[in-house]
Amino acid sequence: MPAERRPGLGRGAWPPLVFLGVLCTAALLAPVLPLADPTHSDTDALAAGISAKHWLGTDALGRDTLSRIVHGARVSLVVGVGATAIGAVAGTLLGMAAGVVRGWVSAVIMRLTDVLLAFPAMIFALAVIGAVGPSTASVTVVIGLLFIPGFVRIVRAPVLSLSQREFVLACRAMGMSTPRLMAREILPNILTGVLTYAVTMFGVGVMVEGGLGFLGVSVPPPEPTWGGMIAEGRQVLAQHPMVTLTPTLVLVLVVVCANVVGDRLSARLDTRGAML
Amino acid sequence: MNHDAPSPSAAEPLLNLRGYTVHLNSPRGTVRAVDGVDVAVARGRTLAVVGESGSGKSVLCRSLLGLLPDAAVALRAGTAHFDGVDLTALGERELRDVRGRRVGMVFQDPMTALNPVLPVWRQIALPLKRHLGLRGRAAKARAVELLDSVGIPDPARRADQYPLQLSGGMRQRVMIALALSCDPELLIADEPTTALDVTVQAQILRLLDRLRAERDMAVILISHDLGVVADHSDDVMVMYAGRQAELGPTASVLAAPRMPYTRALLDAAPTLHGPRGQHLAAIGGQPPDMSRLLSGCAFADRCPRVQDRCRTEVPAMTRPPGSAHEAACWNPVPPPRPGGGTVTGISAARRESSRT
Amino acid sequence: MTARYLLTRVGQALLVLACVAVTTFALGRVLPGDLATAVLGQSATPEQIAEFHHKTGADRPAVEQFWSWFTGVLHGDFGTSALTGQRVSDALADRAAPSLLLVLLAEAFALAVAVPLAVWAAYRQGRAADKAANGASFLLLATPQFAVAVLLIYVFAVRLGTLPATGYVPLDEDPAQTFRTLLLPAVTLALGLAAVYYRVLRAGVLDTLRQDYVLAARAQGLTPRQVLVSHTLRPSLLPLVTLVGLNFGFLIGGAVIVEQLFALPGLGTYALGAVQTRDFAVLQGTVLLIAGVYVLVNLAVDLLYGVLDPRIRHAR
Ligand code: SF4
Questions:
Q1: Which CATH number fits domain A59-275: 1.10.3720.10, 3.60.140.10, 2.40.40.10, 2.60.200.30?
Q2: Helix axes C88-123 and C128-142, enclosed angle (nearest 10)
Q3: Which H or E element spans position A199?
Q4: B315 CA: nearest ligand 1 atom
Q5: What are phi and psi of B331, to 5 degrees?
Q6: What average pLDDT score do residues A144-156 get?
Q7: Average pLDDT for residues B17-21, to the nearest whole number?
Q8: What integer pLDDT is reported at residue C44 of this predicted model?
C-alpha cells in the first residue's frame, strides 16, 4: 500500500520533533558554532551555575556544560541512529528470511537470536568493546547487534501471516523469486511497523550509550559523552548537583521525545490500519 | 402459548415503561436509539421485542439497568417502573442491587459473555456472594444445583470446567444459570439463541419457557427470529428505528399485522426457520439515519403504503379498527379475511419446532 | 502441551546454552591483554609468564581448553579463578544471593506499584489520575537506570542520609541490614520495571474491560471491585507473566550498572571484573550461569503460561 500523505502526526508530535531537530543541527554544526572548547577548563568558574558566559554552567573542571552537551550529542545521536540502523536493517532482513524461507534457515535464525538474547547484554557489550577498543564505531556496532533480535521478532510475525496471504501466494505461483518477493511485496507491508519500533529503539540506543559512557567504556575522554558527564558529576553531587542533573535532563528529554514521536507514529499508523 | 395466564391488562405489570426514551452520543451527533416506548410486562409472561439490529432493542434493555457507559448516554427520559420503583430515578449503587438480584440478563453469545479464565462455578459464585452472601462450599453447592436445574448433566464435574470445555448449548445453559442464580423476577434474554444451532435453539427456548413457568418470572425476549417469537412469547413489540411499530398479543400481531413494516417482516420470512438474518435484509432500502430528527413515520422511505401525511406527522400507537392490538401507522394494512392463509408459515414453523 | 513440544523446547534451550558457552569462550580468546601481566606485574620475565600460562592451561590449543572446561562444567566444575585461585563455582554461589535478592525485591516492588495503579488507571481511563500515571510511566521509561540511581542516591543518601548508597550485608549476618542496603538499588530497578508493567497491564485491562463478559459481570450486579479483581485482572495478567519472567531472567546478572553503582557483590559486578582483568574462567562461568538462568526462566514461563491460561491448556 502506498504511504498516503496525511496532514501530520498531530500537534503533540511537533515540539519533540523540533527539539530533536535543533539538537541534531547543533551537533552537526558543533565545530563551527560559537561554542566554548568542550575540553577547555575555565579555572575561574569551577562547577559554576548558569551565567552569560556559560549558559548551562560548567562542570567540576570548569568545562562549559552547553558545549560538552552539544559535542556529547554527536556521540549519542550517531550511536543512537547508527545502532538503530544496524539493528533495523539486519533484523528486518533476517526476520523476513525467517518468515518467508521455512525450514532450517528459519530455525538457525531463530536460535541465533535466542543466543543473543540469552547472553547478558551489558557483559556482552563490555567484552566486545574490551576486545576491539572503545570508539564510536565499536559502541555503535555492539549496540546495533544487541538490537537485532528485537527487530527480528517485530518483523517475523507479520511476515509469517503475510506469506500466507493470497497476493503473496499468487506472486509465488507466477514464479517470482524469493528475494524479489521480499523486496517487492513483503517489505512495503512491514516497513511502517519497523519504522515505529526503530524510533523507540533510537531512544533506547541513546540510553544504552549513556550507560556505557557512565561505566567509562564508551568513547574515551577527552571526547565528552553524556554518560561520562553524568558519571563525572557524581563526585561533586552533594555540592553541585546541577553538574550531574543538566546532562541527565537532556538525556531523558531526548528519550522522551523519541518515545512521544514513536507513540504518535504508531497511533497514526494504527488508526490508518483500522480504516483500511 | 397454551398456559393459563391473566391478560396483561388484568395483572399489575412488573415492568412498565411510559414514554421511555434514550438518546446516545455518536460521532455523527445524537442518535435517537429509543424513542417514546410504552410497554408493560407482567409476571409469568414473555414479551418479545423484535426488530432489525440497530432498531434500539438492545439499547432499551441495557439502558434500563444502567449498563451503557455514562458518556454514551445523551438523554434518558420517560419512566420505567419496576415493581413500583422508577428505575430511571435510581443511582448506580441502587441499580447494582437490582441487577442480577431482581433482573437477570442472558446475552447473545455465551462464548464471549462467559469469562474464559474462570471455572464455571466461580463465575456463578460471584453474584451469589454479592447478593445472597453465600461463600465457599455453600456457594459451590448452590452453583452445582443451579447447573443441574438448567439441565446440565453431571453438574458437579462441569462446575469445575472452563467455558471452553463446554458445548455452545451448554454454555448458554450456564449463562442462564448465572442469570437466574439469585432468583430474579425479570429475565432479559438478548437474542439468547442467535449464536446456537437450530436444534439447540429449541432446547434453550423450551428451558426458558419452563423456568419462567416454574418461577413465575417475567421474560423479555429480544429476537429477530419471528419463528422463535411465534412459539415462545405472549406479547410482541415490533420496533423500527427506535420507535414502536406494533404491540400486542403475539397471535394477533403475527396473524394480522397492521403496520406495513411488520407485514414486510412476515412476508420476507417464508419459512420462519430459514437462514438467520436474511429475511430482515430482504426488505428494500435502508433504515433511516437515526441522528436525524424525523418529522414523520420512520418507515416512510421504504413503505409501500406511504401517504403524504406519513412524511409530516409521526403516527401514534393506536388500535386500528378491527384489530386486537396496537400499531403506529396512518394507513394500516387491512386485516386479513378470516380463514386467509397468512399464518401458514408460522403454523408450519410451530409444528416443526414442537417435533424437535 | 504435548511431550513432543516439551522435548523440543528443552532441546532448543540446551542448544542455546551450548552456543552461549562457545561464544563466551571465543570472546574470551579475542580479548586483548593478558592475565599473566595483571597477576605477575609488568616486570614479569617471559619465563614467568610462560610458566603462568602453563599452570593455568593457557598454552594448550583452544579446542582442548574449551573441551576440558566444558566437560568440567557438565560435572559442576567451573574451574578456578586464575587471579584469586578461588573455585568459580564457590564464588558464583556466594554472588548469586545478592543478585537474586535484588531482582526478587525489585520485581516485588514493581508489581506492588504497577498492578493496582494500572487497574485503577484503566478503570478511570481519561481521568486525571490516569493521565498522571501515564505521564509518570512515560518519563520513567525514558530515564536510564543510572540516572535514576544517581537521583535516588542524591536524595536518600546525600541529602536525607536515611539510606546507605553502597555496601551489602549478607542475609545470614543481619537480614534487616541486608534489606536496607538493597532498598535503593531495588527501587532503582523497580521504577523502570514498574513503568513497563504499568503500561502493558493498563493496555491489557482496557482491552479486557471491553469484553462481553465484563458487561455480563456488571449485569449481574457485581461491585466494581468484583468486576475488576475477579473478572478483569486475571485475564489481563497473563501477558504480564511472560514479561515478569523475561525481566527476571534478564536482570539476574544483567543489572551490571546498578550492582556496580551500589557496590553490590553480585553476578553482574563479578562478570564486569572478569572482563576487566581477563579472568576467563570467571567470565565464562558467570556468563554461562546467567544465560542458563535466563533460558530456564523463559522455559518455565512458557510452560507456566500454558498452565495458567485455560484457553491454551484446553485448546483442541
Ligand atoms: S405511517 Fe405511512 S409510512 Fe409509516 S408505515 Fe404507515 S403507511 Fe407506511
A1: 1.10.3720.10
A2: 150
A3: helix A187-215
A4: 1
A5: -135, 70
A6: 87
A7: 92
A8: 67
What's the rounded mean pLDDT across residues B58-78?
A: 89
C307 close contact with B: CB closer than 8 A: no
Boundaries of every domain in chain C: 3-74, 89-315
Q: Report which DSSP code applies to B22.
A: E
Residue with the larger pLDDT of the pair B137 and C177: B137
**Distance in Å, CA B40 to ligand 1 centroid:** 24
Summary mean pLDDT of chain B: 83
Q: Model confidence over A102-143: pLDDT tens digits?
A: 778 888 888 888 888 888 888 888 888 877 788 888 889 999
Which residue from C minimizes the CA distance to B179?
Answer: C220
Ligand 1 centroid – CA B315 distance (Å)? 8
- With cell 449498563, the residue in question is B67
> Which helix (H) or strand (E) segment is B26 a member of?
strand B15-26
CA distance B26 to B30: 6
Strand partners, B20: B37
Q: Is the peptide bond before B338 cis (omega within 30 degrees of 0)?
A: no
Q: Which of these CATH numbers, 1.10.357.20, 3.30.390.50, 1.10.3720.10, 1.20.140.10, describes C89-315?
A: 1.10.3720.10
pLDDT at B204 > cutoff 60: yes
Taking 70 as the threshold, does the pLDDT of residue C1 lie above it? no
Does the CB atom of residue B303 touch ligand 1 within 6 A?
yes
Residue C311: its pLDDT value, please?
72
C294 in contact with chain A, both atoms CB, cutoff 8 A: yes
Residue C174 confidence (pLDDT) above 60: yes
Q: Which residue's alpha carbon is at the smallest distance from atom 1 of ligand 1?
A: B329
DSSP conformational letter for A106? H
Grid cell at residue B175:
449463562
How many pairs of residues across B and C have Cβ atoms under 8 Å apart?
Answer: 85
In this structure, the number of other CB atoms found within 10 A of the CB of residue A10 comes to: 11
Question: How many whole angstroms separate alpha carbon A50 and alpha carbon B5?
Answer: 89
Most trustworthy range by pLDDT among A205-209, A258-262, B266-270, B292-296: A205-209
CA of B286 to the centre of ligand 1 (A): 15
- Which protein residue's CA is at the shortest distance from atom 6 of ligand 1? B329
Q: How far is CA B320 from the centre of its chain?
A: 25
Instruction: Rounding to the nearest 10 degrees, give the CA dihedral for residues C239, C241, C243, C248.
Output: 180
C230 interaction partners in chain B (CB closer than 8 Å): 118, 122, 126
Residue B20 vs residue B274, higher pLDDT: B20
- CB within 8 Å: C219 and B112: no
Partners of B99 on chain C (C-beta within 8 Å) are: 218-221
Q: Which chains sit next to C, with 3 or more Cβ pairs under 8 A? A: A, B
Tell me if ipTM is over 0.85: no
For residue C19, list chain A residues with Cβ-Cβ distance below 8 A. Answer: 111-112, 115
Whether residue C314 lies within 8 A of chain B, CB to CB, comes out as yes
Residue % of chain B over a pLDDT of 70:
86
Residue C76 is classified by DSSP as: T
pTM for this model (two decimals): 0.81
Confidence at residue A30, expressed as pLDDT on a 0 to 100 scale: 67
